[in-house]
């Protein structure tokens, strides 16, 4: 809307920059190389040629720099790499001009050769550096280095450490180990690209590739792999066809990467080795189970929080700088919303800004964490989503579901250590049994949805960031988990052993209860469910279970930073953007009492958390594997945060009668708290307003909220009765309270947006209110302000 | 804000596409992407939902009629109404559905829908299954068929929400179970139903808040836009969260100001026509559906409303209550078809009338399966309250389809003339029903999204097939 339309020619010329840069790079470098040949004989016959190269090189450097500047003006480039590139480009152009000047002054081949040559060689360096960083801008700064096997970030397509070149020449004989590696690599390629149609689920053309004998047997038209002969191998022929050929495989989706085709080719040419031992190696990226405590980088100036030390290391590696932290106002708003889910009052803001203590940020975070009820009420929302706990929903109608709110609230309020928290959910009392009891609908349900299997799926998803849903119906084709693993895990929750059903068909097979990782401990197969669950609880929270703690710290990180270190937060096998950070946080969280509040304290007081927020243009970028951390991502308030914020600011959205759980009347809590000013949204039943704003119905586990605004939501806010009635009520109260519009406007901005209105805003608001504001005018101003993105976004 | 509205909304849907990400479903590579598209025969769907289980032998598939007499044998009763002829040769409906009988030359009568066996015969589970094609519970939130269509085709007219659900309140018995499938599930709230629980007050959902004049509404919106442009958040430039919020508010404003919103205002309908439709909430829902098709709605569901033991859920007084139910639906459904036909819209509008299962006086569930009986039915009937189809029956269910490329004047499938009056020819199950609807709309049968890395198809495992015999 506001974006000015760029004159097309500038944009066009700017885009010629990547083309134009090749001239100065090659011309100037060639000039420098030729100059080397003249070191002994400055009157070399090369001289006139060198002069022309410098002339054209310098001229093209100036042109390229100018085009580059145009591109920068109209393109989407920013960051440190750009700045480096830009300056080296300008310097190159500058040196080029100096060289021209020297040549001109020299008028031939006399003159000061030392200065001339020095500048020429420097120019050769600057143009190379500019070129390198330019390429980094275009291809990504790890374009080159990521292919190097010694690079720490080197991750081949399958996530293994395979390197085709290392296997040596075509004639070389592979070792057993190399054969295994090569085979694993090939099977990874087949799994990701072919199993879908040529696997257990679908057998197109009678061909299955998901097993040694199946793959060599071939399909309806005979074998597809002829060991040692790529040209005779139909499999290779089909994958190497051009993308538009009707026979190309995969017939749906992308053509295989050249690298993958090369690997398959090499594998077949080597006789298609498929050693039996290799079958055990995984073809999927699998995160390590073990905890890891990497050595913290040494403290540097101004940084002491371990999170910041890791961030500092990460920033250095990624050419990022530390921007200045956010100001007090923004910081206070953040920690209030993130820790207790409320907006700070103007008085609190004022007090905070005037607080002279150097460590006031840490002190205020601590204080917020100590507001036990506010803290518990806020985090209740997150855990309700994850544990699918709600006051209403399916299942309750026939007693097939149990509410755990009281247990959950008390656990959060008392900051129950996380290991204890998990243990009580897995080996529950009546108060905490709702999570593994699941939701029982009447009638017969799919075998993959019986409550024992629900428990297996939900425990692995919530606590281990692991998807067992596929494997609960058939062997997974997105991981190594097998149907039997899922049943073994589900049997922990069953008093009798469940018959394995494959895609809802009984198989007549049974499997003993087992942990997903057996090194974590045994389960007594003869025991009752209660005993097995106790064993599970003890096994799962062992410090050796690094996965449990990584999953948790990653979830809390994602809540506060807008994106996890691993994303999606339920797929902990994915690569983190910083393995050291994740491992260190998880190890030390577990080693220091699994204290959730301490973890939140550590994050909230880090400089990393205090970085300015980062916006993004597309949601897809969040999950991009090449995501680079630069600071917290801007987030939208949850339904509960928004509702509580307007309740506190304007008028309560809910009344005491709406409370579904009232911690303040529970006997155990009498006199231990102060009654809160508003009825918080996490304590009431879901309704159309909260649903529209994104509160899930908790039929299934939900570990992140949909942050996209949509029409149905906007309609609820624009003409929904509940919301507009609340605004009207608030307007009546404010009208009585503030008799002049000026104070009212200032109060609204300071309470709602934690700042003064600008002059323009003030004028607009005043115009809207008039001299003697009516209830309607105040109501409409409320509406306009609380719907501002500035109000609704945590930034 | 001088944007042209259409441009604005075009941009909106582009941005929405861009919003697809990992936690948001990603279109799977398994989806047909080879450019082959199915030739569509419809672009709008109206689902007329007979909530609570509509007995086939007392509606669209009548059998031998046995009038009520005290002391009659229950087992002798197959239909409690007389049969009346329809416009189709040899095809009869149950008395009270004459008007619909007269428009059957414009559609297909399906007499062989077979509802799933889920152990118990329960309204909420079967309704969930009918609307999502998945049996509850599921480990992933399954989307309503209206949401799938909204997601795949988007709104037909960008101003009108793509999926509109008319007539169901959720504060009744089993409301939570109803909510469980009135959802876009993993597709995201954006594709969820726009709920109009009561068509008589439907306008309230699409006009400025009650008591707010149009000029005040306008001023309020202007103030909002002015304040946004002044807000320091503007410094951040283009930002997904900010733009998304702003766009959605703009969309709501456009809808509320649009002439299309008048479709929700039934008072604008000529009295003559209004009176024909006005048989109650359902009839007026049909009228609203018709008006919405004129403004470019995509998927509209109109329900007789599910409330345990009400409406079609006849656990007693089946005969008496069906007289009233038929009055509710006969005129409006027939008029809807006639109106759509007259305006030429029936060609591209697929109208479906369906129910989660049927009923029988004696059999609970299916003939050979044992399920808990939900109703006490005496073998000898003394009281007229026991005269009716009171038990849940899944093996023969009637369904109507009109327009949108469906054969005209055709009958598909057949049930037995003796108890159990179950399907004996061309059985059709829910996967086929859904795929037939998708087929009419040109939505590929293997449409799916990756949820937690697993493909989730419109019908389980993408295996359902459309019933091509239904199409002309």
UniProtKB/TrEMBL annotation, chain A:
The membrane spanning regions, by residue number, are 20-38, 50-72, 84-102, 114-135
Q: Which InterPro entries match?
A: Cyt_c-like_dom, Cyt_c-like_dom_sf, Cyt_c_Planctomycete-type, DUF1549, DUF1553, DUF2231_TM
Q: Its Gene Ontology molecular function terms?
A: electron transfer activity; heme binding; metal ion binding
Sequence ranges assigned to domain Cytochrome c in this UniProt record = 178-272
- Name the domain of life this protein comes from: Bacteria
Which UniProt keywords are listed?
Heme, Iron, Membrane, Metal-binding, Transmembrane, Transmembrane helix
Q: Which PANTHER family match?
A: CYCLOINULO-OLIGOSACCHARIDE FRUCTANOTRANSFERASE-RELATED, F-BOX DOMAIN-CONTAINING PROTEIN
Q: What is this protein called?
A: Cytochrome c domain-containing protein
Q: What is the lineage of its organism?
A: Bacteria, Pseudomonadati, Bacteroidota, Sphingobacteriia, Sphingobacteriales
From TrEMBL, chain B:
Q: What InterPro entries is this protein classified in?
A: Alkaline_phosphatase_core_sf, DUF1501, TAT_signal, TAT_signal_bac_arc
- Coiled coil residues, start to end: none
Q: Which Pfam families match?
A: DUF1501
| Annotated protein name in UniProt | DUF1501 domain-containing protein
């Amino acid at each position: 809307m506001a974006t000015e339309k760029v004159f097309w020619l500038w944009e066009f010329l700017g885009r010629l920059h990547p083309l134009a840069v090749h001239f100065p790079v090659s011309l100037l470098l060639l000039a420098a190389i030729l100059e080397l040949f003249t070191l002994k004989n400055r009157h070399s016959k090369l001289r006139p040629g060198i002069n022309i190269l410098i002339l054209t090189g310098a001229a093209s450097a100036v042109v390229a720099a100018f085009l580059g500047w145009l591109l920068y003006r109209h393109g989407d480039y920013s960051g440190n790499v750009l700045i480096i590139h830009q300056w080296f480009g300008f310097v190159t152009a500058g040196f080029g001009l100096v060289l021209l000047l020297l040549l001109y002054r020299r008028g031939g081949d006399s003159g000061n050769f030392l200065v001339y040559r020095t500048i020429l060689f420097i120019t050769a360096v600057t143009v190379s550096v500019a070129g390198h960083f330019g390429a980094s801008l275009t291809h990504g700064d790890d374009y080159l280095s990521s292919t190097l096997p010694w690079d720490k970030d080197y991750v081949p397509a399958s996530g293994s450490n395979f390197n085709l070149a290392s296997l040596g020449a075509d004639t070389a004989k592979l070792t057993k180990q190399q054969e295994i590696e090569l085979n694993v690599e090939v099977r990874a390629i087949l799994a990701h690209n072919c199993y879908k149609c040529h696997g257990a689920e679908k057998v197109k053309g009678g061909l299955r590739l998901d097993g040694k004998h199946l793959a060599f047997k071939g399909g309806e038209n005979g074998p597809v792999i002829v060991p040692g002969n790529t040209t005779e191998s139909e499999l290779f022929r089909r994958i190497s066809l051009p993308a538009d050929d009707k026979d190309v495989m995969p017939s749906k989706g992308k053509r295989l990467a050249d690298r993958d085709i090369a690997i398959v080719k090499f594998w077949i040419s080597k006789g298609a080795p498929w050693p039996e031992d290799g079958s055990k190696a995984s073809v999927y990226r699998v995160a390590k189970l073990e905890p890891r405590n990497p050595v913290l980088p040494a403290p540097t100036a101004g940084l002491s929080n371990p999170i910041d030390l890791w961030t500092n290391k990460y920033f250095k590696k990624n050419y990022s700088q530390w921007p200045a932290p956010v100001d007090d106002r923004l910081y206070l708003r953040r920690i209030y919303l993130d820790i207790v889910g409320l907006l700070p009052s103007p008085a609190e803001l004022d007090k905070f800004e005037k607080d002279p203590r150097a460590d006031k940020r840490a002190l205020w975070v601590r204080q917020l964490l100590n507001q036990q009820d506010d803290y518990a009420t806020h985090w209740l929302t997150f855990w309700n989503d994850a544990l699918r706990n709600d006051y209403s929903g399916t299942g309750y109608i026939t007693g097939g579901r149990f509410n755990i709110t009281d247990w959950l609230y008390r656990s959060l309020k008392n900051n129950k250590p996380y290991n204890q928290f998990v243990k009580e959910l897995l080996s529950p009392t009546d108060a905490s049994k709702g999570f593994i009891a699941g939701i029982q609908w009447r009638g017969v349900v799919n075998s993959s949805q019986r409550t024992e299997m629900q428990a297996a799926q939900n425990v692995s998803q919530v606590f281990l960031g692991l998807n067992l849903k596929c494997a609960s119906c058939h062997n997974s084709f997105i991981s190594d988990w097998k149907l039997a693993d899922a049943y073994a895990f589900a049997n922990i929750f069953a008093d009798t052993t469940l018959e394995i059903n494959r895609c809802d068909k009984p198989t007549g097979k049974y499997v003993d209860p087992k942990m997903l990782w057996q090194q974590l401990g045994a389960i007594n197969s003869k025991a009752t469910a209660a005993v097995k669950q106790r064993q599970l609880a003890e096994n799962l929270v062992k410090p050796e279970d690094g996965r449990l703690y990584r999953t948790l710290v990653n979830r809390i990180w994602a809540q506060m930073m807008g994106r996890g270190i691993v994303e999606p937060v339920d797929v902990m096998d994915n690569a983190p953007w910083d393995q050291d950070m994740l491992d260190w946080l998880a190890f030390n969280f577990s080693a220091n009492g699994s204290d959730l509040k301490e973890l939140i304290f550590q994050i909230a007081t880090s400089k990393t958390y205090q970085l300015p927020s980062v916006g993004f243009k597309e949601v897809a970028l969040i999950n991009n594997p090449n995501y680079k951390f630069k600071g917290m991502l801007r987030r939208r308030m949850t339904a509960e945060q928004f509702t509580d914020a307007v309740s506190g600011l304007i008028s309560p959205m809910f009344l005491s009668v709406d409370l579904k759980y009232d911690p303040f009347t529970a006997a155990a809590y009498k006199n231990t708290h102060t009654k809160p000013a508003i009825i918080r949204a996490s304590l009431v039943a879901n309704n159309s307003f909260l649903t529209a704003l994104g509160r899930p119905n908790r039929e299934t586990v939900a570990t992140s909220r949909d942050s996209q605004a949509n029409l149905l939501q906007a309609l609820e806010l624009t003409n929904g009765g509940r919301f507009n009635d609340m605004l009207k009520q608030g307007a009546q109260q404010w009208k009585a309270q503030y008799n002049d519009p000026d104070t009212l406007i200032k109060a609204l901005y300071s309470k709602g947006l934690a700042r003064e209105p600008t002059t323009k805003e003030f004028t607009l608001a005043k115009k809207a209110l008039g001299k003697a504001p009516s209830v309607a005018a105040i109501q409409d101003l409320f509406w306009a302000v609380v719907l501002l993105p500035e109000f609704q976004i945590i930034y | 804000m001088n944007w042209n509205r259409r441009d604005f909304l075009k941009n909106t849907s582009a941005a929405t596409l861009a919003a697809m990400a990992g936690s948001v479903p990603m279109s799977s590579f398994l989806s047909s992407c080879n450019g082959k598209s199915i030739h569509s025969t419809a672009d709008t769907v109206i689902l007329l939902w007979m909530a609570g289980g509509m007995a086939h032998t007392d509606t669209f598939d009548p059998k031998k009629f046995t009038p009520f007499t005290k002391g009659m044998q229950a087992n002798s009763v197959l239909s409690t109404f007389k049969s009346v002829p329809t416009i189709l040769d040899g095809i009869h409906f149950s008395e009270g559905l004459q008007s619909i009988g007269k428009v059957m030359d414009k559609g297909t009568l399906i007499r062989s829908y077979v509802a799933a066996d889920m152990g118990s015969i329960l309204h909420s589970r079967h309704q969930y299954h009918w609307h999502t094609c998945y049996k509850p519970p599921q480990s992933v939130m399954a989307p309503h068929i209206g949401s799938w269509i909204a997601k795949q085709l988007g709104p037909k007219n960008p101003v009108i929400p793509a999926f509109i659900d008319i007539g169901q309140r959720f504060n009744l018995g089993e409301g939570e179970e109803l909510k469980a499938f009135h959802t876009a599930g993993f597709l995201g709230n954006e594709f969820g139903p726009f709920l109009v629980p009561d068509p008589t007050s439907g306008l309230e959902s699409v006009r400025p808040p009650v008591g707010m004049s149009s000029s005040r509404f306008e001023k309020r919106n202007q103030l909002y836009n002015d304040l946004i442009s002044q807000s320091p958040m503007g410094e951040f430039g283009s930002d997904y969260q900010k733009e998304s919020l702003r766009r959605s508010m703009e969309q709501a404003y456009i809808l509320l100001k649009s002439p299309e919103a008048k479709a929700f205002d039934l008072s604008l309908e000529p009295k003559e026509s209004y009176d024909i439709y006005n048989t109650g909430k359902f009839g007026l829902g049909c009228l609203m559906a018709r008006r919405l098709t004129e403004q470019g709605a995509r998927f509209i569901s109109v329900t007789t409303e599910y409330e345990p033991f009400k409406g079609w859920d006849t656990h007693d007084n089946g005969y008496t209550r069906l007289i009233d139910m038929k009055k509710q639906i006969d005129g409006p459904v027939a008029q809807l078809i006639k109106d759509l036909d007259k305006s030429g819209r029936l060609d591209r509008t697929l109208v479906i009338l369906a129910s989660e299962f049927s009923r029988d006086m004696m059999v609970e569930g299916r003939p050979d399966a044992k399920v808990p009986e939900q109703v006490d039915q005496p073998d000898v009937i003394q009281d007229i309250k026991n005269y009716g189809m009171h038990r849940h029956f899944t093996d023969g269910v009637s369904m109507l389809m009109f327009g949108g490329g469906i054969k005209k004047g055709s009958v598909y499938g057949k049930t037995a003339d003796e108890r159990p009056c179950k399907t004996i020819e061309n059985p059709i199950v829910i996967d086929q029903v859904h795929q037939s609807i998708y087929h009419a709309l040109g939505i590929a049968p293997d449409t799916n999204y990756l949820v937690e890395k697993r493909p989730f198809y419109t019908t389980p495992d993408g295996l359902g097939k459309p019933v091509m015999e239904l199409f002309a």
